[in-house]
Design goal:
single chain, mainly beta, Lipocalin, eleven-stranded antiparallel β-sheet, 2 helices, 11 strands, globular
């Protein structure tokens, strides 16, 4: 590229609107609660759930998802030029990557300005099979952004998990997630 030109990632209006609706919350953190969990996992029970729209770049949002004292999860939403990608960056306390990391999916259609779906990508499917959880190859992650609520949802045959975050009341942002620099 000549001079100081920056590569622009081509995107469509629904993807841009969805991305920008989340981006407007940059720097803010919000409390959430599990509203649907048909498998009743103890990992999220009776623990504070916090999403933090921590870092916002032109083509990527980094959103740590804290579960109690567990700061191992960060959602990465990236404009790819052919849609949006959602990856789950999982880290250990020492910052090293968990064996189950960077799974997620990519949009396959325009979605809506308020809702995007991310069916599991091939990397994720292979990772799930290697880890002995082949039922997860049918995962689709969904994110919803409305003026008063952000929702993270996982669905697959026989499984639904959903966390709703209240966007009307920002809270004090938590410390950096594991593996990320404190800023």
């Amino acid at each position: 590229m000549a001079g100081n030109q920056v590569a622009n990632t081509v995107s469509i209006s629904n993807h841009d609107a969805f991305f920008n609706s989340i981006k407007q919350h940059c720097g803010k953190a919000y409390s959430g609660k599990v509203t649907v969990d048909n498998a009743k996992s103890d990992g999220f029970s009776n623990k504070p759930l916090i999403m933090h729209v921590r870092k916002c770049e032109e083509n990527q949002l980094q959103i740590p998802f804290h579960v109690g004292d567990d700061a191992s999860r960060t959602w990465l939403i990236t404009k790819t030029g052919s849609g949006l990608s959602l990856k789950h960056d999982h880290r250990h306390k020492d910052g090293s990557s968990d064996i189950s990391t960077m799974y997620g999916g990519h949009t396959v259609d325009a979605g809506w300005a308020q809702v995007q779906s991310f069916p599991a990508d091939q990397y994720s499917k292979e990772l799930f099979v290697q880890q002995g959880i082949p039922q997860s190859i049918g995962n689709t992650w969904q994110m919803f952004i409305y003026p008063k609520q952000f929702t993270y949802r996982l669905i697959r045959q026989g499984r639904e998990f959903r966390v709703d975050f209240d966007l009307t009341t920002p809270i004090t942002p938590p410390a950096a997630p594991w593996g990320y620099e404190q800023k």
